[in-house]
Amino acid sequence: MGRVDAVDKVAGRALYTADVVLPQVCHAVLVRGTEPRAGILNIDSQEARAMPGVLGVFTASDFPARLFGRRVRDVPTLARGQVRFIGERVAAVVAETREQAERAAARVQVDYEPMEAVIDAERAMNPGAPAVHDSPWEYPGAVVAPGSHNLQAAVEHGSAGAAESALAGAAHLVDAVYTTPSGHQGYIEPQAVLADVDADGRIHVWMANKSPYALRAQLATGLELDPSGIEVHPVAVGGDFGGKGSPMDAPLCIELARALGRPVKVVLRYGEDLVAANPRHPARIRVRLGCDSEGRLLGLAVDSLLDGGAYAGFKPIPTVVPHGVEEPGQSYRIPAVYTLSRVAYTNTVPRGHMRAPGGPQAVFAFESALDELAARAGLTPLEIRRRNLLRSGQPDPYGVTRLEARGLETLEAAMASYVPLPAPAGTRHGMGVALYDRATPSGGTSLRLLPLEDGAIQVDVPFPEQGSGVHTVVREGLARELGLAVDRIRIHQVSTAELPHDDGVGGSRVTASMSNAIGRAAAAWRKRDDDGPVLVVTERTEAPAISSYCVQVVQVAVDPETGQVRVLEVLSAVDVAEVINPRAHQMQLEGGAAMGYGFACLEDLQVSEGQVWAASLSEFRLPAAADVPRFRTVLLPGARGVGVLNVKPAGELTNVTTAAAVANAVAAAVGVRVRDLPITAERVFSGLGQQAPS
Amino acid sequence: VRLELYLNGDLVEAEIAPDTLLLDFVRGLGLTGTKEGCGVGVCGACTVLIGSRPVSSCIQLAACADGAEVWTVEGLAEREPALARAFVEEEALQCGICTPGQLVAAGAYLRQDLPADEESIREYMSGNLCRCTGYGTIVAAVRRTLGGSV
């Protein structure tokens, strides 16, 4: 049967937020700040108001002072008194058409009084640097202590003393700093929202957002409303990758709809999305890693500093840290660890989540350092991993014991499939390896099953299909559990008014969460004693730690004259339990590897002087069909999975390891260690120039 | 200005502002299968055919299509059922936002008597970005339609 969503999407019938049209809808365009930090002295909208089609120009003083966010609520509806990054919302122009609103927005005059800005994270940590926010600990949901300086969050793990003494006794030691740039999620559908307020004051929202129930809660909290007063309607979501989980422009859109008594739509131009949405955190990660004379890891100390930009409100998890950076080296036995992860406030675009948040940054640093340490210890990259990977039953350095630890098996499966490819004449071949695994919790959701006239079952689901294949998983899983043909199951996404709750997609948990819910739903359906609907609600579980391992083996050809790197192949070995839809699973893995390749070699928003310079997709380059390397996948079956479907997470694996594997392959090819992403010809060339002539 | 064109095979006449983009023109007629992505002619989400030529409708004035035959995904999916079927059967999509553009670009490829090998398809399809799939299934769908082995 294939995918639930395929036929409509191929015919151009699937409705995304920008495609939804309501009677009387009008369009809002934002006037954005042009200074990294400045006082707003005056906003002159007189000329704009007189332009054709303009219905109004709105500034912060037109609305109550409210704050929004996913965890920390520090994001204003519109900038109030001060702009904190280039691109911040300063005013909104609403007109009959988007083009009219854009023309008028260009005529809004804002007078600024520039203030000293903090444009990078290291400087922000300097006690003498100006404070981006006066007292950020007072924001609702803040996780920092009073008196902290430019911190969004800081998390420690392990013991500094133990790590220091272990490192002091190490036979071999690496101490190196790795950096990764800011990157955009690269969803092709820009951020978009449509809001309407009905005659009863009830708010209706259509939004490019992956988690309708979380969005409703975020809006209700910020607007001080009961969630039942807000209804989030189903739409297709044109790519997420972590970037579509915040309220973004919804609070503003709702205020505008209230003020005008008409539906209002905000659809960003892609350039705005690159400059002013919520791209990935750039990171500076210092890794100190030591081993004994046999190559056994003894100690690890990691200091990670991430640039969180002007607002913390785009991160959902309780620590307010992209959690992948918190626990580097988690796949290995390391007796003594200490990690400090800090996220700084700066006067740059606020940063949010992107596919395995924090993971690509931390794994690039750790897996690069591990190769550097192997070289010092006289071991191959494979051997140092074989000697130190966790075995089942052993706790990781952070105290988590996985149900199974299959890193070694996955590594051997990858190497068993490895076949060296010929490198073009004049280039040097290199092979690099990197590994990742992360324990993933499953979330709660709700499903309703209704019998249809023709004997089929309609399944109401609370979550959108953002591309991961979740609707298809529900259909195939329920069909399997109930012994029905898949065409007897019809998936129907409903609004937030229809079902009690959903934790949303994200954290690779969706298939695993569904596995629990489908089991419960199938059981309830079989036991039902009338022809009414069956509703099941599941809660977030603290299940045993299930992790999926990914080992990538990358082959590169490096031109020693120019430093140009060609990635010949990305071989991904992934440990799996059951695979519900092999094609969808494969696509998640290959799409992840393509994104990993972009992170490794191409993508950089080029943030400097507080400004995103790669402000269009011709400058922020995403990999195209002819750019991506050859992908090969090896599945290592037989793992223990979650729930009735016996599945494991897949969505956030293959994008995490690629950069380290490419860096390690480049080092193997030409002896140049690139510690700063992306791995460009210039960086490799510069490294070649520093080598002693042979 | 006055505009007359054949849209998905039907004659359409309209009075439009001279700076109307072809993208906004077709979307304004309810043909919202054509998507706005990058807005600068790079991502291909807005691809339509003018005659047999794929163009980025986000950087094309509607007036320039006067007298032409324009195909959007809605018409092309019907005109090229084998291609549409191949996209469905190869599951050559995930979030789907780039899919209309991919289908239209692939439709142009089919009519151009170009080689059916993987490298040629990848080269031709490189004006259509996809962030989800890694491209393997999209290339497979095109090859399948061309009768190549997948």
DSSP strand (E) fraction of chain B? 15-25%
Main interface: chain pair and counts: A-B, 59 and 53 residues
Mean pLDDT of chain B: 96
The number of strands of chain B is 5
Supply the helix-strand structural class of chain A.
alpha+beta
Structural class of chain B: alpha+beta
Kindly report the spatial arrangement of strands forming the biggest sheet of chain B: 2-1-5-3-4
Regions with little confidence, pLDDT below 50 for 5+ residues of chain A: none
Q: Number of DSSP strands of chain A? A: 27
Provide the helix percentage of chain A: 25-40%
Q: What percent of the residues of chain B sit in helical stretches (DSSP H or I)? A: 25-40%
Our estimate of the beta-strand percent of chain A is 15-25%
Explain how this protein is built:
The complex is a heterodimer of chains A (694) and B (150). Chain A is 25% helix and 24% strand. Chain A has 16 helices and 27 strands. Chain A has a seven-stranded mixed beta sheet, with helices on both faces. In chain A, strands 9-17-16-15-10 form a five-stranded mixed beta sheet, sandwiched between helices. In chain A, strands 18-23-24-27 form a four-stranded mixed beta sheet, with helices on both faces. With 150 residues, chain B is of the alpha+beta class. Chain B has six helices and five strands; from the N terminus they run ββαβββααααα. Chain B has helices spanning 22-28, 73-79, 81-89, 99-110, 118-124, 136-145, and strands at 2-7, 10-15, 47-50, 53-56, 69-71. A five-stranded mixed beta sheet of chain B has the order 2-1-5-3-4. The longest helix of chain B is centred in the C-terminal third of the chain and has 12 residues, at 99-110. Chain B is globular and about 45 Å long. The chains are: A alpha+beta (694), B alpha+beta (150). Chains A and B meet through helix 1 and helix 14 of A and helix 2, helix 3, helix 4, helix 5 and helix 6 of B.
